[in-house]
C-alpha cells in the first residue's frame, strides 16, 4: 500500500525480484551486501563521512530537535526540509553521547512500534530510508544501533502494545530490502535478547512479501543464501509458514504436510497423489532436503523423542519411515549426482540441529544407500567437502565415522 510499495520495489530490488542496478547516491560508499560490491553480504561497508555540526549539543536539545523534525515530516512530508534540519545536527557523534543518526533511528523505530496508524508507520520508515538514500544522512550503523535499542526491550513493550512484533516488522522489512540491515545481524541480535525469533522474522518476512511481492522476497533469500532452518526448528515449521503466509517464499516447507501420512504408513501412491494435490515441488532440492528433515524428525518422535547424545535415547532404527524412504527413492534414485547430495547434506544438518550422536550420520547414509536413495558416488562427492556442509565443526569426525562404515582407506 502507498509509499511502502514504492520503497520496496524502487529500492534494492525490481518488481520481478532482480537486484536493482541503481548506484548509490553521489559520494556514497558501496552498499551493504549488494552483489558485485567489495563488501560481503551481511557486512557493513565503511560509511562515507558526514557533516558533524554542533558536536557539543546537549542530549535534551538534540532529542527535542529530532522530535520536531519527525513531527513536521509527518505533517508535510517535505524531505528537503528534513535534510536541511540534519545539517545542523551532530550526525556522527557528539560529546557524551550518540550521534543524531542513532538517536533518530531509535526515535523512529520506537514510534513505529507504538503507533496504531499504518500510514504513520509507513511515513516514518520512508523518512529513514530516504535519509539513507539522499547523501546517506542515515547509514547502516545508525540503523543497527537504533534497532538494537528497541529490540532489546521488545518483549516488555508487547505487554502494552500487543502488535509490537508486527509493527516493528514494518520497519525491519524495508530496512532489510534496502540493505540497511542484514538477516544475519538480525538473527544474532535476537539470540542475544529474549526475542521470539520465529515470530519476529515470520512477521518481517510476511511484510516483505506483502509490500514487495513473493518474487522480490524469494530473490532476496536466494542472494543472501538464507535458509528456513536458520530461524525455524524442524518442529512447527509448517505452522509458522502457514501463520505468516510464507508459502511463496519457502515452498519446500510444505513437505511437513506429508508427516501425518508417514505416521499412518501411507503407500507410495498415496504420497505421490498428496504431492500432486498440494502442488509440491518434486524437482526442488530444497524440497528434498526438507523431506529428509521431516522424515528424520518423524522417526525420532516415533522412537520416543530421543535426540541422541550422552544420557539420551539412541538414534531411531530405521532412521527414516517407510513412506519417506519410498518417496525419497522415487525422487532421488534417478536424479543427477548434484541432486543426490541434497539428502546427505540434510542428514548432516539434522544431526547438527538435534545433537544426535556422530554415528547417526553414517547410519542414515547406509539406509539411503541400501534403499537406492543415493549412490556411492554421491557419498564420495559429499566426502570431498566442496559444499557449505563443511562449515559444521563436527564434519571431520563425521567424515571419519563415514569412512569406517564405508570401509574407505
Automatic annotation (TrEMBL):
Annotated ranges, domain MI: 61-191
Pfam families: MA3
UniProt-recorded Gene Ontology molecular function terms: mRNA binding; translation initiation factor activity
Compositionally biased residues, Low complexity: 15-42
Residues annotated as transmembrane: none
Superkingdom assignment: Eukaryota
GO CC, alphabetical: eukaryotic translation initiation factor 4F complex
Keywords of this entry: Initiation factor, Protein biosynthesis
Region (Disordered): 1-55
Entry similarity comment: Belongs to the eukaryotic initiation factor 4G family.
Identification of the protein by name: MI domain-containing protein
Classification lineage: Eukaryota, Sar, Stramenopiles, Ochrophyta, Raphidophyceae
